Amino acid sequence: MMSAEFQKDITYLKGVGPKRAECYKKLGIETVFDLLNHFPRGYLDFSSPVSIAEGANTGDNAVVKGRVVKKLPEARIRKGLSIYKAVFTDDISDLTIVIYNSEFAFKQLETYQEYILYGKITGSVMRYEITNPLVIPVDSPDKIQPVYALTEGLNQSLLRKSMHTALEAFDGDIYEPMPKKIREKYNLCSYNYALENIHFPKDCHTCEIAKRRLVFDELLTLQLGMHILKSRSQSRTGCTMQNCSLNRFYDSLPFELTNGQQSAINDCIKDMCKSSPMNRLVQGDVGSGKTAVAAGAAFFAYTNGFQTALMAPTEILATQHFQTLCGFLEPLGVKVALLTGSLTPKQKTVLKQQIADGEYNVVVGTHALVQQSTEFKRLGLVITDEQHRFGVEQRAALAQKGQNPHKLVMSATPIPRTLALMIYGDLDISVLKELPKGRQPVETYAITGKLRERAYGFVKDRLDEGRQAYIVCPMIDESEMDLQDVKSYAKNLQEGAFRDYRVGLLHGKLSPIEKEQIMTDFKEHKTDLLVSTTVIEVGVDVPNSAVMVIENADRFGLSQLHQLRGRVGRGKYKSYCILITDNVNEESRKRLKILAKTHDGFKISEEDLKLRGPGDFFGSRQHGLPTMKIADMSADIEILKQVQSAAEEITTADPMLKSSENRGLQQLAFMLFKSKNID
Ligand code: ADP
Ligand code: MG
Fold first, then answer.
1. 620 C-alpha to center of ligand 2: Å?
2. Residue of the nearest CA to atom 19 in ligand 1?
3. Are 405 and 237 contacting, i.e. CB atoms less than 8 angstroms apart?
4. What are the two backbone dihedrals, phi and then psi, of residue 235, each rounded to the nearest 5 degrees?
5. Does ligand 1 have an atom closer than 6 angstroms to the CB of 290?
6. Do residues 403 and 394 lie in contact, with contact meaning Cβ atoms separated by under 8 Å?
């Protein structure tokens, strides 16, 4: 177990009274453990000074070493403003140190003493200057100083002092949570060393060693936490099914399944025949045909006498899934219901009763509706179309429902495998690698606004051939003004370039019924051109649409653009995507070019990861994982891989981390997920 000191309240430390403890609380620090886990944001590195000339005018802070040769008398500019100056030299150039208003700082400087300065150097050879530099004596042992996130009532030196006190309290004897053989195998320093050196590194090297250990711990803890989550939900299911033939289903499909679809369905069947509930993710690029997999799994459940619930994030998608599933399943005698907010209260009551009576075999709806108060007669399978907005937490909550039904998650976000293991560590994964036969890649161009008219002309040509098109305008902040912009953009098109065509407008502020009407009109080809905000991003399927124009394309992440682009090229027609941007900077051009030449969602997401960092995948709102203090999952991908093999080693031998050597890790995992109720 973790030593008692570690979990003591922070006021246990000398120099931290109740008042200061209040300040620390604002930073989320309540215990000594919390404090020591408040890692520096960065460091002031005094360890490698350069010459004054070299450090000058870089636009950045410089570190220089030298001595004070002369202190000038105080210059009192006016009441309350004094300037102190000293002349400093590195024996090549001179530098004037300018200190505003701090007699104290000035007094610290002694003539003929050597110092290291940290600050911005401006001016020229004649007169280099540094204002209010940070100063340490040349022989100071703290050449690298931590910089912490602060809050009112705290400053850097107070924090540093508290850290010192905390570390001293243990006197080099901090509890080691990591089993010895893992530490040795992965070449990790001790926890004690890591904490000392993350806060007060002797040099960059020790800092790196410390950081690696702490990142390892953090990722391992997360991975183990996910593992515990997974074993919990794997307990038992009341819905064990019997294997049976799905030939009736396969024969009735209008197409042949891809290998990926077939093996994903087989994975599901195998899982659903077990006595523990299925927890499976079907991951596939846009257009890879995840819905058919869902239909197969639902049909299997139906054949076994179980009901299936399919939850979608939006009404439009729920409606679309409903229609697709009806198409696949109703001819086979499966009864499918649609449960959305557009129903009247009375309709809802009636429908819910019928679901409870088991009159429907498959229920499609939005998350809210299906989860809330809907009773099933014999629910055996829950499918969620995640569209990367769901999270671990919800999945865990779902596991508690009913007879512990089987769960299938569909995700269109093709995230790199290592990241998938993190976000979906509690799930088994089936990947749909290939797209259905005959799909042609969407030809993609990036243009500037100057060519907009020509792009419109190109769109009109496609419409004349009988195709349909989308124009996507991002709503920048979803405000009224934004909405006006989109509305007038659509109006201009309808009255101008596209006056001979039927233009629809879809945006997030419409009521669900209006949205559905507009989508239905577009699906039924009652409109030719759909102007839309990003609400169409999520999985809309209209095979006749063959062109998409995206305005302000540089505002989107690559993965998002790829998702959008996936709305076209879904049928047999050659399709196009035109990205319009007036942002001509190198970075944004580079990004759009990647999209023009790449059609593999996995590759694109990896590029996105490199260019924009993991925020898109790891914004905590999206994935629901605990926030990481130190690990950056894209930069630390190598460690992540090692962590994954370590986690496997540990859990194979001791799945619930109950042995005494794993207790520390178990405790850390519980602490990390403490707000997530895995305990
Ligand atoms: P997504 O994986 O993006 O959800 P969908 O399930 O919406 O993809 O499928 C995209 C389109 O491809 C649909 O029109 C669907 O009918 C069609 N489709 C699915 N599987 C196949 C297949 N094996 N062969 C041909 N078309 C398919
Ligand atoms: Mg889909």
1. 23
2. 289
3. yes
4. -40, -80
5. yes
6. no
Residue 620: per-residue pLDDT: 34
Q: From 249, 255, 320, 540, give the residue whose CB has the most ligand 1 atoms within 8 Å, as the site to mutate.
A: 255
Q: What is the pLDDT of residues 571-582, one digit of tens each?
A: 889 999 999 998
Verify whether ligand 1 is closer than 6 Å to residue 601 (CB atom): no
| pLDDT > 90 fraction of the chain, expressed in percent and rounded | 46
pLDDT recorded at residue 300: 98
Contacts of 233 (CB under 8 A, 6+ apart): 277, 279, 395, 396, 399, 404, 407, 426
* Distance, CA of 216 to CA of 644 (rounded, Å): 10
In this structure, how many other beta carbons lie within 10 angstroms of the beta carbon of residue 201?
A: 24
Please write the tens of the pLDDT for every residue from 193-204: 999 999 999 888
Bridge partners (DSSP) of residue 70 are 87
Question: For ligand 1, is residue 255 a contact (CB within 6 Å)?
Answer: yes
User: 17: CA distance to ligand 1 center in Å?
Assistant: 63
Q: What is the DSSP string of 68-110?
A: EEEEPPPEEEETTEEEEEEEEE-SS-EEEEEEES-HHHHHH--
From the CA of 390, how far away is ligand 2's center (Å)? 15
**Ligand 1 atom at minimal distance to the Cα of residue 570:** 11
Phi, psi (degrees; rounded to nearest 5) at 105: -60, -40
Please report the pLDDT score of residue 195 as a whole number.
93
| Sign of the dihedral through C-alpha 61, 62, 63, 69 | negative
Q: What ligand is nearest to the CA atom of residue 324?
A: 1
What tokens appear for 547 in the block? Answer: 């062109």
DSSP string, 382-414: EEEE-TT---HHHHHHHHTSTT--EEEEEE---
**286 in ligand 1 pocket by Cβ < 6 Å?**
yes
Distance CA 428, CA 654 (A): 20
In sequence order, what are the residues at sequence separation of 6 or more whose Cβ sits closer than 8 angstroms to the Cβ of residue 387? 312, 313, 317, 411, 412, 413, 538, 539
Q: Pick from 261, 570, 602 the residue to mutate for probing ligand 1's pocket: most ligand atoms within 8 Å of its CB.
A: 570
CA distance readout (Å), 98 to 112, 224, 565, 640: 17, 53, 57, 47
The alpha carbon of 379 and the centre of ligand 2 are apart by a number of angstroms equal to 22
Nearest atom, ligand 1, residue 256 CA: 23
On whether the CB atoms of residues 188 and 643 are closer than 8 A, the answer is no
CA distance 621 to 617: 10
Segments in the chain below pLDDT 70: 1-5, 232-234, 368-372, 386-402, 413-419, 421-423, 425-426, 476-478, 535-539, 609-637, 673-679
Q: Within 10 Å of residue 26's Cβ, how many Cβ atoms? A: 12
Give the residue carrying structure tokens 């924009």: 612
